[in-house]
């Protein structure tokens, strides 16, 4: 009877939580998924090694997650793009607990942030709030990339997808990478896409994110991320070392980018200026809860939420807010 009462209390508590966390009530310890021979062979075909560094990019509007690996050139190359099953909230950064927002920004994930015993199969913690977000007073915790097509502030993949992704990043961390970078964006940060949101209150923040996005696109190298002046600053070396206060003005930079890289980044800035001058702003007519990749939306529409839950989750974890998931506010933008 005591055990039953405790179990009922746990279930009740978990049901009341508004974040993607089990608050310690995870399943019993289990063996984490291993890198399959199929995935290893796919890496080899692209000139990549299982232990080579990894980087993850996430795009809300497109509902896609990308895994990048360093290949034999020494730069990052795309290994695989995964359609995302579910994310919650709307375009824009997460600022407070309970807002259902999935984070946007730059995060760094170490091995201690991997959870092989998550109630959502397996997961890794993004580390929200990061240094900048903490300094700005943003609140929230346990924001994950995990399995099961359910989100209340997290990025949800299918169990099969997150198992594969988990094995990839864990192998890279065991291979010597101390932490891997996650870049989470509202959409692909092209000049055209960003200009469409020029009247959005988040535009200044997104324009800063585009600086890091453009550097990676141009160089295929991981951007160095600093925080000062209440924003991200990329690939800067400062007099006196890294800024200690994310809210204080940035110290003078003492380095310069490679002239060829700087020239190509200037071209991207010019493209944005042109797009801003000629584009029209995109206005969302109504708020809907998050997004889902069109491939999963088709399954949800044709099979229903209960059947889909059985397809994407070993525990048949319910699809979060399936009615909202059927809506597609970004179809015009895509």
UniProtKB/TrEMBL annotation:
<dbReference type="InterPro" id="IPR005490">
    <property type="entry name" value="LD_TPept_cat_dom"/>
</dbReference>
<feature type="signal peptide">
    <location>
        <begin position="1"/>
        <end position="24"/>
    </location>
</feature>
<dbReference type="Pfam" id="PF03734">
    <property type="entry name" value="YkuD"/>
</dbReference>
<feature type="domain" description="L,D-TPase catalytic">
    <location>
        <begin position="54"/>
        <end position="185"/>
    </location>
</feature>
<feature type="active site" description="Proton donor/acceptor">
    <location>
        <position position="146"/>
    </location>
</feature>
<keyword id="KW-0961">Cell wall biogenesis/degradation</keyword>
<feature type="active site" description="Nucleophile">
    <location>
        <position position="154"/>
    </location>
</feature>
<keyword id="KW-0808">Transferase</keyword>
<comment type="pathway">
    <text>Cell wall biogenesis; peptidoglycan biosynthesis.</text>
</comment>
<keyword id="KW-0573">Peptidoglycan synthesis</keyword>
<comment type="similarity">
    <text>Belongs to the YkuD family.</text>
</comment>
<keyword id="KW-0133">Cell shape</keyword>
<dbReference type="InterPro" id="IPR038063">
    <property type="entry name" value="Transpep_catalytic_dom"/>
</dbReference>
<protein>
    <submittedName>
        <fullName>Murein L,D-transpeptidase</fullName>
    </submittedName>
</protein>
<keyword id="KW-0732">Signal</keyword>
